Fold:
Amino acid sequence: MSRLKFTHIMLASSLLLTALLLWFAFANCRSAIPVAHCYLRGLALSLGQAIESLAIRDTSLHLLSDFKSNDIAYFAVIGRDGRFLFHSNDDLIHEPVEDQRYKPVLASPVITDERIELGTGEVVFEAQQQLHLANGPLVLRLALHTWQADQIIRRARVGGGMILLLLVSSWGLGMWSMYLQRRDLLRREELARQEQLAQLGKLGAVLAHEVRTPLAGIKGFAQLLGERLVEPRQQTYVDKIVGESERLERLVEDLLTYARQETEPKGISLLTESILGAWEGLAASAEQSNIRLQLDGDSGVSVLCPQDRLCQILLNLFTNALQAMPDGGTVQVVLSSTPEQAMVQVIDHGRGFTAESLKRAFDPFFTTRPSGSGLGLAVCRKIVEGYGGTITAANNSNGGAVITLCLPLAKDES
Structure:
């Protein structure tokens, strides 16, 4: 199983577990209120039955004075004439009932309950039910303390809050861990790239001393031989030798450029002038392929990059653009700038990048062309990053590829 697939499975599992925990916390908090209500309602019914049993045994209701419970705030018995026949507060016995909430209960055997606020500011659960006595029904009004029921709600909310806090903490730690892993991966990739660069540096030194000299001799002798041969067939062979020698020379030069450590910027280049100069070097090939240059946004700025290095970058980008459009077209160069940097976009109208080539566009030795070395864009990135810039590749929404080059402006630019 690939690392990416394993990561996707773990992420999907984490999301599913998070959704289940959130649903559980929400459902628990939501059900706490009806559970607390059912608890109070059941307690009121149990206490009501006990009070009714005492009232049946003693119709004078004197036994109710001895009935105590820590859950009861107060209780009273209301007669059919609207007076308190009994009340926990002895001062209210035989006093008229000020509200009319007892009448529906007296008229039919229903049970009502609601939360009300007492004069002391306490919120209680008040339940009303009928007392079935021999001389007719009475109304029991029972007010209960709600602290136990409220504790059920508070515990559910605290539990939900803890679950939410744990989820947020877990996701935060997970994201931080992923960030550290990603940073470590990028650091290792950079170390691997630096190691690869060091190996290429050694290879470049070998090429410089062991390959360039004999290669120059092969090319030189082939050119001298070509001047003396008159037979067309033999001249064709000599031209192939010279052409392949030049291709190997370019490959060696690209390797040396990629292996070279760029130093701090010491040169300044006029951006527009460099673009036109680089295109002029390919003008003949572009004309043969029916390709023209379209330059938009003459910024007139200077960038912190030596002229020869900038032209090398642009030549590579223009060469790739020409090769991407064998049937002709337009290479569009769009210039823009900010107070800190200049941006150059080289846009062609070819096939664009595939998903794989877009991901590995700047990897050394990666190419989709049979005769390519795979060092063009890698060399461009090496030079650009060496002078404090960036280079990225993307596909154009209208088709083709877009290479975006950003370089810092010269300090004397206003």
About this structure: The first helix runs from residue 3 to 57.
